[in-house]
Amino acid sequence: MIRLEQVNKSFGHLHVLRDISMEVQKGEVVCIIGPSGGGKSTLLRCINHLEKIDSGTIYFEGTPVYRFTQNGKPVVDPDHRIEQFRSQIGMVFQSFNLFPHFTALENIMVAPVHVRGEARDEVRQRALALMAKVGLSDKVDAYPHELSGGQQQRVAIARALAMQPKAMLFDEVTSALDPELIGEVLRVMRRLAAEGMTMLVVTHEMGFARDIADRVVFMADGIVVEEGAPQQIFSAPKNERTRQFLQSILDRNAELEPGEDNAAQA
Question: What is the distance between the alpha carbons of residues 243 and 170, in angstroms, rounded to a whole number?
């Protein structure tokens, strides 16, 4: 469904993505792990064209998008085609980015109604079903400031799903949450995975990656260092850099007092 070929991205002199090649099959859950600053979030933003790549090609369902070479000539997609592509991939961020003056239900409805021009009554029924899906049927009329962080993030997931995407990108969606709220968001993501949603997930939740991912990708310093099945990556990593990272996670968890490691165990 998503394929990257030798994708590069720099910010000034900082080379953030270095010849990244990767595939995500339909219905597959791929978790990307690695140290901060390794390029994970930038990779997701490039896939959704929130950042423009410098070179390489991104394919969606076998078709090149954004910038690519056709018949030996460079091609740049027009904005309307990029928007059409972007509407097929939902993205959920660290920050919830809900409209503060809209209710939870209105936040979910706004894009299908105003971007796609769908009938309001039909979208409302879909939004109500999504509120139930994320366990927030009793918060339909609540405003963001009346919701916990975990509830706001679940509304953000429902908002992305309202566009009926073919794939979902999750960028550290639990990192801004208190430990006790992380589980409720991960439960929604687990359900999506069980239903066959194609998902590319940047996460520090090692337990989630181990249990849910079909494949785990370890990124550091702008490159894919290693990828494989969760059992292989977590139990027998082949690369020393991967082993060092996972050991640092184990060491950090060992230093926590009992009860402090809810996030890592979620």
Answer: 24
For 126, residues 6+ apart whose C-beta sits below 8 A from its C-beta are: 112, 162
Q: How far apart (Å, rounded) are the C-alpha atoms in residues 110 and 78?
A: 24
Give per-residue pLDDT as tens, 72-115.
Answer: 787 788 888 888 888 899 999 988 889 999 999 999 999 999 88
Bin 37: left if φ > 0, else alpha if -120 < ψ < 50, else beta.
left
- For the segment 2-16, the average pLDDT, to the nearest whole number, is 96
- The strand pairing partners of 29, in sequence order, are 199
Locate 25 and state its tokens. 């099959």
Global confidence as pTM: 0.89
Report d(CA 193, CA 203) in Å as an integer.
15
Nearest Cα neighbor of 45 from 71, 78, 11, 1 is 11
- 2-88+166-265: which CATH number, 3.40.640.10, 3.40.50.300, 3.60.10.10, 3.20.20.150? 3.40.50.300
Could you write out the three-class secondary structure of 43-76?
HHHHHCCCCCCCEEEEEECCEEECEEEECCEEEE
**231: exposed, middle or buried (Cβ count in 10 Å: 0-12, 13-18, 19+):** exposed
Q: Measured between alpha carbons, how far is 70 from 63 in angstroms, rounded to an integer?
A: 11
DSSP β-bridge partners for residue 220: 223
Nearest residue to 208 (alpha-carbon basis) of 240, 249, 148: 249
